[in-house]
Write a structure and sequence with these properties.
The protein is globular, with a radius of gyration of 15 Å. It has a single domain, classed as Nucleoside Triphosphate Pyrophosphohydrolase. The relative contact order is 0.27. By secondary structure, the protein is α+β, with helices and mostly antiparallel strands.
Length: 158
C-alpha cells in the first residue's frame, strides 16, 4: 500500500447476499468497472443508520429490490483494502477499504420487479448464479471476502 494512504480509515459498509427461490445468488456488473466482474449489492452505512437499515436501503437504491426477508445477519465483519491502483480514487480518496457487515436475504418477488436503472445507477447488468460461482466472477481484491461468504452461506442453507 502506498505510504500516503496507510493511515486512511476503513469505510463502514454492508453487503447483501440475495438468494432467490432456487438459492441462486443475485450479482451485477458495475458501470464503473465494465470488465467481466460481478458483485453482490453493497454500500456504506450512513451516520444515522444501523447496519440492517443500511442493507435494506442499499439493496433498494441499487436494485429496486424491496420484497425480501432476512434469513440471517452473518457473524462478524469482513475487511477488504483497495489495491494501489484505486487508492485515492474510490470514495474520493477518503478511505483505504471497507469493513463490511453482511446479511443473507431471501428474495420473495418476481424478476421483473428488479430494476437496476435507478436514480443513481451503479450496475448495468444483473443475473442469478450458483453460490459456488461467486468466487469465479468477483474482482481480485474482494476474492477473500467472497470465499468467506460462500462458506458461511453454505453452512446456513445446507
Amino acid at each position: 500500500m502506498k505510504e500516503k494512504y496507510k493511515n486512511l480509515p476503513l469505510r463502514n459498509g454492508v453487503g447483501i447476499i440475495v438468494l432467490n427461490k432456487e438459492n441462486k445468488v443475485f450479482v451485477a456488473k458495475r458501470i464503473d468497472n465494465p470488465k467481466n466482474f460481478w458483485q453482490m449489492p453493497q454500500g456504506g452505512i450512513d451516520d444515522d443508520e444501523d447496519p440492517l437499515s443500511a442493507a435494506y436501503r442499499e439493496l433498494e437504491e441499487e436494485t429496486s429490490i424491496k420484497n425480501v426477508t432476512l434469513i440471517e445477519e452473518l457473524d462478524g465483519t469482513i475487511i477488504y483494502e483497495l489495491p494501489d491502483r484505486l487508492l485515492g480514487i474510490v470514495w474520493k480518496g477518503k478511505y483505504k477499504g471497507q469493513k463490511q457487515k453482511w446479511f443473507l436475504m431471501r428474495y420473495l418477488g418476481n424478476d421483473n420487479e428488479i430494476n437496476i436503472k435507478t436514480n443513481k445507477p451503479e450496475f448495468f447488468q444483473w443475473k442469478w448464479i450458483d453460490l459456488d460461482m461467486i468466487t469465479e466472477v468477483v474482482v481480485d481484491f474482494k476474492l477473500h471476502v467472497y470465499k468467506e461468504l460462500k462458506k458461511k452461506v453454505k453452512k446456513i442453507i445446507n
